[in-house]
Amino acid sequence: MKWITFGLLPLTFYMGAPHAQSISQQWILAMAVKAESKSDTAISDAESGYARQLKLQGALQYGDWEGQLSFLYEAESGQGESSELVVEELFWQGDWSGWDLMAGKRRLGFGVSYAHRPVDVFLPVERNPVYLHTNEGVAVVSASRFTESGELSLMLVDANASRFHDTGLPRGLAVRWYQLGGVNEWQLLGYLDDQRGLSIGGSLVTTYGESWELHTEGRYQQRYKQWKEPSFPEAAAPSIEEERRDGWQALLGMTWTHSEGHSLIAEYWYDSRAWRAQDWQELANNAHWYRDQGSQWDSTRYTWAAAFLGEGRNRHNLMLHWSASNHRYNPKLDLLYSPEDRGVVVTVGCSRELRGYWTLDGSVRYFGGAKNSYLAQLPIKTLVTLTTNRTF
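Predicted structure:
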C-alpha cells in the first residue's frame, strides 16, 4: 500500500476536530491477520494464503444527522493490496405532525435470530463473520408512528445504495407493524419490490422468567432466483440462474442465559429455496468428472461455482452457540450442522480486554463434514483470524 494511503488515516480521524463541541463522534481502530487453508475440492482451484487488514470506523452525529463511515485496507498474499473508504450510513431524522421521519442511507435489519434472519429482507448481511468487513445500509425514506405498545412504519427502500451491489438490487415499498405486550413482542413486515414481487415476513419473541427466551421468524417470497440443478456432465451445460416462485423460510430458536454470564442458543431453520442434498452431491460428481477430462472442461467446471452464490444453501440447518461474557476471558463456540448432507462449520473464539481500552480477539473457523456436502465444498477449509481493536 502506498504511503499516501496511510497518510489519509490521521486526516480522516481528525476531520471532526474543528466541530468537536457540536459533533458527537466515536471511532474504532481494528487490525487483523487472517490465514486461510483452502479446501481440496474439484469445483475450485484456490490456494491457501494469508492477509493483513486494517479498519478505521467512525460514528458521527450532528443535530438530526447521523452517519457511519469506514476505511478498510487489506493486503493478501499473492493478490496485492486494496483500500476503500465507504459511507456505511448517512441519514436524517425528524418529526412532523406526530410522525417520526427518516431519510438517507441506513442499515435496516429487523430479524431476531442469531445465525440466520429471514426477516432481513432488504439487504441481508453475513451473520457472525470472523474477519474485518464493511456493512452498508440501503437508501430509505420512512415515516413511523409510535403508540404505547408498538410502531407502524411505512418505507420506500432502494438497496442499490450499497457500494458493493450498485446495480440490479430490489427497490420497493415496505410496511412494518411492531407490537410489545407483556412477555411477548411480535412484528409483521410486508415488502413489495420490483424484482421479487411480494415478500411477507414476521417474528415472535417470548421470554420465560429471567433465563429462557423463545423466538421464531419466517418469510414468504413470491419470486426468487436460483441456479438450475446440475444434470449429466457430458451435456457440458453451463450454470444458469432461473427465476422461481413461492419460496419460504422458517426458523425456530431458544436462548438460555445464566446469572454468571453463560449463554446458550439453539436454532433450526428450513429454506425451501435451497438445493437438495442430492443436487450438491451431483455438483461434486460433475466437477470431478470435468477435472479428470482435462483443461478443456475447466470453463464449464468453474461456471458451476456460481451455485454457491444462490439465495438458498441448505434446506435443513441446525445451529448451537455457547458463550461466556462475565469473565476476564470471553470464549464462544458455534456449531452449524446440516443434517440432510452432514455438512458442518465449527467456530471457536475467545476475546480479552487489554490495558488502554484495547481488545484482543482470536478465532478459528472450520468448514467440513461429509465429503460432498455443501459446506465441505466451499473454497475455504480453515480460517484463522487474530484481531485487535480500540475504541476512541
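Summary: The first strand starts at residue 24 and ends at 38.
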